[in-house]
């Protein structure tokens, strides 16, 4: 979840990467919505995302894939936290999230991915 957006930014640029990554939480919000106005806004957002990421000869498909992977991870994170929050009483859900973020940060900092910009 944390490595894919940074790798996407490195290959396709910050604006496109963040736009595509935001499609994850947008999808979760739209799936929970039942209003027609929300559907119209979703269509406008989808059209804008397609315009930003439209395929061209210089399109980096790996970067686009990484940004969409980050979107899927973000959507999954939201859905899992919703379930954990309803099933664990009190602050146990927040405590579990703190431990999982600590583990995630440890794995990310000890990964064997090459440093960006290193020669």
**How much helicity do the residues have?**
over 70%
Chain-averaged pLDDT: 82
In the residues, how many domains can be counted?
1
Q: Which shape, going by the Cα principal axes?
A: flat
Order of helices and strands: HHHHHH
Structural class: mainly alpha
Number of helices: 6
Structure description:
With 119 residues, the chain is mainly alpha-helical. It has helices at 3-12, 14-21, 23-32, 36-52, 61-87, 92-109. It has one domain. α1 runs antiparallel to α5, α2 (14-21) runs parallel beside α5 (61-87) and α3 (23-32) packs across α5 (61-87).
Question: What's the quick description here?
Answer:
Helix content is 76%, strand content 0%.
Which descriptors apply to this entry?
single chain, 119 residues, mainly alpha, 6 helices, 0% strand
Topology:
Layout: H1 3-12, H2 14-21, H3 23-32, H4 36-52, H5 61-87, H6 92-109
């Amino acid at each position: 979840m944390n490595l894919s957006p940074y790798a996407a930014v490195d290959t396709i640029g910050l604006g496109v990467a963040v736009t595509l990554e935001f499609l994850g939480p947008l999808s979760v919000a739209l799936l929970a919505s039942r209003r027609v106005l929300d559907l119209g806004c979703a269509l406008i957002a989808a059209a804008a995302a397609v315009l930003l990421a439209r395929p061209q000869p210089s399109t980096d498909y790996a970067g686009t894939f990484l940004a969409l992977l980050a979107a899927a991870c973000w959507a999954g994170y939201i859905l899992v936290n919703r379930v954990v929050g309803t099933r664990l009483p009190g602050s146990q859900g927040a405590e579990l999230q703190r431990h999982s973020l600590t583990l995630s940060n440890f794995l990310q900092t000890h990964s064997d991915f090459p440093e960006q910009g290193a020669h």
